[in-house]
Amino acid sequence: MSRQVSSSDSAMRWATGFFRDRNRTIYTILLVGALLFPSIADITTGGEGNHLVSTAADAGVFVLLAIGLNIVVGFAGLLDLGYAAFFAIGAYTYGLLASGLLSGSPLHQEFHFPFWIMLFVAMGVAAAFGAILGAPTLRLRGDYLAIVTLGFGEIVPRIFRFLGAGSPIGNWTGGVNGIAAIDPPTLPFFLTGPWVGAPIQVVKPFDFSDPIAYPMDFYLLILILVVLSIFAVNNLQNSRLGRAWMAVREDEVAAAASGVNTVAIKLLAFSIGASFSGFAGCYYGAKLSTVGSENFEFIVSVTILIMVVLGGMGNIPGVIVGALTISFVNFYVLTNLPDYASSIASTIGLDFLNKSSGDWIGLHDEVQRLNYLIFGLILVVVMLLRPQGLFPSRIREQELEKGTAEEAVFDLREGSPE
Amino acid sequence: MLVVLLAPKAASDLSLFVQILVIGIANGAIYALIALGYTMVYGIIELINFAHGDVFTLGAFLSLPLLGAFGLTEGKSSGVSVYLALILIAAIVMLLTGTINVVIERVAYRPLRNAPRLAPLITAVGMSFILEGIMYFWRGASPIHYPDLIPNPRIPLLAGATIGLKDIIVIVVAIVLVILLTVFINGSKLGKAMRATAQDREAAQLMGIDINRTIAATFFIGAVLAGAGGVIFGLYFNSVRFDLGFGVGLFAFTAAVFGGIGNIQGAALGGLAIGLVQAFSNAYYQSALTDVWIFAILILVLVFRPTGLLGMQVPER
Amino acid sequence: MTAPETEQPTILALQGVTKRFGGLTAVGNASFEIKKGEIFALIGPNGAGKTTLFNTITGLYKPTAGQIIFQGRDVTGLKPYRIAHLGIARTFQQIRLFAYMSALDNVRIGEHSRMHAKLWDAVFKTGRARREEAKVTERAMELLEFVGIRQQAHNYARNLPYGHQRRLEIARALASDPRLLLLDEPAAGANPQEKRELMELVQKVRSQDITVLLIEHDMKVVMGISERIVVLDYGEKIAEGKPQEVRTNPRVIEAYLGKSA
């Protein structure tokens, strides 16, 4: 063996070093996958990939939400069961200030603020609500906080539903009908002004005008938002603040004795977590161009929590994988399973299964009826097989591999005050 | 504050007021039966058992074929034999839901007892989906009519208000069950084991208490009460749906927290309180905001009296 | 008092500190003063209220009555993190490390209150945040070196051997740059060799101009390193003085030494 160092050797060494960090590997795979996804979707469906791209953009929203909730649950160890409330607040903030709805309110004035500014406004409003809810309640022990957030999560959509036409104080939210015809984002003038020449033509008409026919622009937008968020949250995790969150999660008493203002730190986690939800809500409202209170029920909060826990609490790539997995199951597997089942049945000559007779309502509908059951089974089985989540943070995984979790020399968590 | 809100209403139409009171107490009795299961399970393993509400619905669903098997049909059956059959059916259903809940605990929660705290919470949500999924697959998504088997003659109360026989049955059954449970928890050996385990699991284990058996018993008893609640709900409201347990369960859980989670009498009282708030809000104020009031009360109670009305029995960790 | 220590200023003064839990008086009317730079021991039989007193000094409990004066400032009833900011650090009788964080991170948490990075700095990893992180990390490594477990920096706290966990807790406490260090039974569970090393470490801490208040059961450790001792029994102070004075005090012998030594 010669000891010559060729350039390909050093590249290899760099690559092995780079990929030894599992998180980097996951990020790289995810980014490449995300960039290639639209083309793959187009090829595999024979040019009909728009629907898949649009669905993927929706999944991106859930990735954002999961990253945000991970700050609260994974980093700071606070259980939030009403996270969708902040999502709703973000979406309604944009919906109200970028549609004609408020012309029907006692204000008699509609607003059309630009999306790009509203992204940050929605973030701020959600963060403010997070702080308002958190300030009196974060003193409470962990589970009580969970219950308070659950209550808040139930209240918010109901209030949005109530404050529609016919409410005692007028129509502020569109009530059960929600808000329709919300403005799509428009590219800022410095990108579209006459000095640019031809409009940007990288991907068809890049102007967010038609999310159904041309979902690419929304897909790219959410991809950029997700990437930016990952950078921000990664920095947060490795900062003074991130350390303090984890200290509070591990041992609140010891953290306080080490000089950490635990209430303020928890409030920040809660508020920053909420701001991500508001951010995601604003995008969601713009993409759907409509929001209704039914988009933000308890089940949404639970779904996001499932993404975080199933992916691997505290570990950002894990949480992203969790969000993508659950989105895939929810938006793709469960929606397509009935069709697959009936087409398989007809190809293998069991066509009679597809016809309804008596109590049998046909294979397609029967499978559709199984959706709840399948989703529940997936949750239970995955959690039983991987209690730490699919991709737990490094530390916990080491614990599992070494099998030391059960036989630690000293269980640090058992400290009592006296 | 409540008195200020309600006193003028009571004065203006006492009959209506009493009528609403009766509805509230009957509804509250059902919430109480379910709240007990939440509070017991939380008290012993600090798990918000999201599947509990669905065990309640399962109770109603399981009783439906039994009614047929016992030949009970609406409009045809009457007399004492109906009540005897119903008691027998309820007993079978309670045994079934209890057993099912023990199995759920064994399969979905016990293996995760030393896992991160949120893992069993997620399997609880998963079990909730599974139970709802089974009931959905079994009977579909539309509301199912539950036979109206109990005659409901109205017995006059004060000021022209009346109370139905059904109301009385619901309230009496709930009271009897709560008393039985209290006696059991305070008096029996198993009850003492439950309290000890709730206080300090390790210490209880050192004292020779079989933790697994005690926790399984807690799930069994909680589900027995929920199963009874399911049958009573069906007989009282005559309509059930596969996802009924979600909303009812959320209210019952609120009731458990309201009364002081881990506290048996607290859960009963909390259930009653939630039932009353719901009835009065529906009748006198915006019914669309009823749930908002209930959850707002929940938050306020937790902020200003975190231990609930009667204080909690869960030790601070 | 006529001892030469009086020349040193008082760093911590307890004036009639009382802590009751319901009907139980855990600490009753405790009054004593600790001079700057001394190693001061708090001893007493189990359940004498030593740890309760620690918890009261560090703000985990609010005293039922009495005052706690630290460096001339009334700190009675302040929040724990405020007291840590003011310069009182502590360890715990039953080790309370951040189990799922590295030893280095445990120490860096101790420096939390000395840091200034704001949210903005954290999100955008500004130059200021980077510089501060580098400084904090360097100091944390020095502290790990100081307590002798530098090699453990990147291991998770819960995987450290017991003796190292004790040392890590001290390093974390020192990271907040305290003027007064409260050690709650640092030698508990240690073997004689470890105890000797620990006594050296405590001496080393004191030589850094940090006053040490120590709870300890091991009489050898207590008599070996402390300059003055207060003895608590059933929450009340029954003796105070130099080790040899306390050792010969009949009340102490009756309440404490008579039982255990």
How would you portray this structure in words?
The complex is a heterotrimer of chains A (418), B (317) and C (261). Chain A has helices at residues 7-20, 22-44, 50-75, 83-97, 115-137, 142-162, 189-192, 216-237, 240-250, 252-257, 262-288, 298-311, 316-347, 363-369, 371-385, 394-402, and strands at residues 98-99, 111-112. Chain A is an all-alpha fold and 418 residues long. Chain A starts with 6 loop residues before the first helix and ends in a 16-residue tail after the last helix. In chain A, 49% of the residues are buried. The model of chain A is unreliable at 199-204 and 396-418 (pLDDT under 50). Chain B has 317 residues and is mainly alpha-helical. Chain B has one domain (2-304): ABC transporter involved in vitamin B12 uptake, BtuC. Helix content of chain B is 73%, strand content 3%. Chain B is globular, with a radius of gyration of 20 Å. Chain C is globular, with a radius of gyration of 19 Å. The model of chain C has no long low-confidence stretch (mean pLDDT 89). Chain C has a six-stranded mixed sheet with strand order 6-7-8-3-9-10, with helices on both faces. Chain C has a four-stranded antiparallel sheet with strand order 2-1-4-5, with helices on one face. With 261 residues, chain C is of the alpha/beta class. In chain C, helix 3 (103-110) packs parallel to helix 6. The chains are: A mainly alpha (418), B mainly alpha (317), C alpha/beta (261). Chains A and C meet through helix 8, helix 9, helix 10, helix 11 and helix 16 of A and helix 1, helix 2, helix 3, helix 4 and helix 5 of C.
The radius of gyration of chain A is: 24 Å
Structural classification of chain C: alpha/beta
Structural class of chain A: mainly alpha
Low-confidence stretches of chain A: 199-204, 396-418
Radius of gyration of chain C: 19 Å
Enter the CATH topology name of the largest domain in chain C. Rossmann fold
| Gross CATH architecture of the largest domain in chain C | 3-Layer(aba) Sandwich
Strand content of chain A: under 5%
Shape of chain C: globular
- The total beta strand count of chain C reads 10
Given as residue ranges, the uncertain stretches of chain C (5+ residues, pLDDT < 50) are none
Q: On the 0-100 scale, what is the average pLDDT of chain C? A: 89
Strand fraction of chain C: 15-25%
Assembly state: heterotrimer
User: Considering the protein shown, what is the CATH homologous superfamily of the largest domain in chain C?
Assistant: P-loop containing nucleotide triphosphate hydrolases
SSE topology string of chain C = EEEHEEHEHHHHEHEHEEHH
Q: Which sheet architecture does the biggest sheet of chain C show? A: 6 strands, mixed
